[in-house]
Predict the structure.
Amino acid sequence: MSKFLQFRCDLDNFIDELQDKIDNNNTKVKELLTQKEPDYANFVKPFEMMEEDLEEFFTPLSHLNSVNNSEQTQEVYTAALPIITEYSTLLSQNLEIYNVYKTILKEEANTLNEEQKRVLELNIQNFELSGAHLDEKTKKRLQEINISLSEYSNQFSQNLLNATNTYTYIIEDEQDIQGLPQGEIENAKFEEDGKIKYKLTLQMPSYIAYMTYGKNREIREELYRAYVSRAPQNTDLIDKILALKYEMSKLLGFENYAQLSLATKMAKDEKSVLNFLNSLLDNSIAQAKNELQELQNIAPHELKSHDTAYYSEILKKEQYDIDEEEYRPYFEQESVVNGMFEFLHKLFNIRFEKIDEELWHPKASSYNVYENEQLKAKIYLDLEARESKRGGAWMHNWQSHCTNEKEEELPATAFVVCNFPSSSENTPSLLRHDDVVTLFHEMGHTIHHILSSVNENEVSGVNGVEWDAVEFPSQFLENFAYEPKVLQMFAKHYKTEEILPDIMIEKLVKSKNFLSAMGMLRQLEFSIFDFQLHTKLYKGDEIQNLLDIIREKTALIKPPKYNKFQNGFAHIFAGGYAAGYYSYKWAEVLSADLFYEIIDEGIFNSQIAQKYLTTILHKGGSQSMGILYHELMGREPDVSKLLRLNGIK
């Protein structure tokens, strides 16, 4: 197997290098099109690898802009976006390439393997969804739309990051900081004019800590107000993004963007999605109301949005005698990572070996990944929060496993990014259990990508997987973060090395579905809002009105008017989830169904786990997930398992 790529990104010369690569690619496309008898080997494969090479070049810039954001990365990334978008759009609209692909699929139907057919079928679909078969005027307009959308999405994300990083709240009264985890108190502490003060921010560890443990209700409301009203300039961007997506849909022959989005997903139509979401809502709402009443019963005043996390923590401790902070010493970051690796080794016989190399940040690390003792892939971890990193957690695929034109096997690589509490010389990074779940989730995405055995990069790993199925492997793996057998592999006190006591594990498992119906309603609110927002053209106040109407059923506590959630909904306005946020729940049905099958087999001796490795992880996007899932389970997914997983009766 060839060597892995070295991580490099020359910001000073990136734009020139990018332009050179694009010029070379355009020349190569012309050469490919002049061939007299194009076939899969001499046309499709070189075209695939050309695109893979460009993606491998561009990804480090995208990664740096997310994890080491600076004025220079912003400037270079902003300059690169229109260049790469124009190139990609023109290529996706090239009628000659589209016709060649259709001809090859027809003439080589009997000799192509499943992977090759899938590549051709998906490409033909993508060409049609890009307007390759339309007139030049329409194609030009679609090109303009794509460039504008990429720029607006980048602005949306940057506005959110800037708003998050510029806000601070200074506490001078020590009483107002009491109750917070000691590590967060230390992180917030600073000295000014000879006085000890505390700085709170909207970055996740700081914000969550105060909303959960901060006793001063006025400060909680101030932080909440700042968080839910971030980036007001995104209001105008939302109007522009929605208008362009609606126009694009019409130009491509769809009634709305939701229809266009579903063209590449498992769900059949709009009705299927909304029926699915509303069914979950109907099954969850009664239990959610009971949960809220329990919460209200312990509060001395009417609950508001900025109160729920605080009183939830009190109720959780009261019901389960569980204090999240008591667990954190058992979830030291390095121990959790190593324990997760050990779990994956026992489940799938994959092994992780740390590499000593200099990366983009001292806190980042890399590992070689072996399957059955054969070097298979490489991953990069960047797990701690910092100001230069955008919030959230994600897996970003870099290289994809495949064979090139010379039939040489090429490896896969991926980045795993989280925002866990920062470590220092004196304080290790101690995770909340939610952080552990997040890490398992992102690792589920990661192994889906890197363990692929597919030879065609465009359908290898997560490539080619339907968007409403791509969360299946991640949600499946995160469920094991609650399993006692798994927790005992890594939950060790960072000072004493004591294993997390059985009684604490039992409490954690019992508390797993604490207020789960309320959590279900929150996710359904996001999903229904996103999907309905893309079923017709909404603009201006209509967007807030739509959200308010949905909240009449989903929001048991009415949010304040200053709550502009949509301005921070980066998943759909700066990510790939537009008209697709429902995918989390859709995929969770698959993950819950499979999870219980493996639990019933005793986890480590599970035959279905091995079948999952060979049927789902090895095959990537080489077939529709609907086909692969049926091959794995021998039946259709069982929706009731999702309610069971969430403890909803």
In short: The chain is about 55% helix and 10% strand.
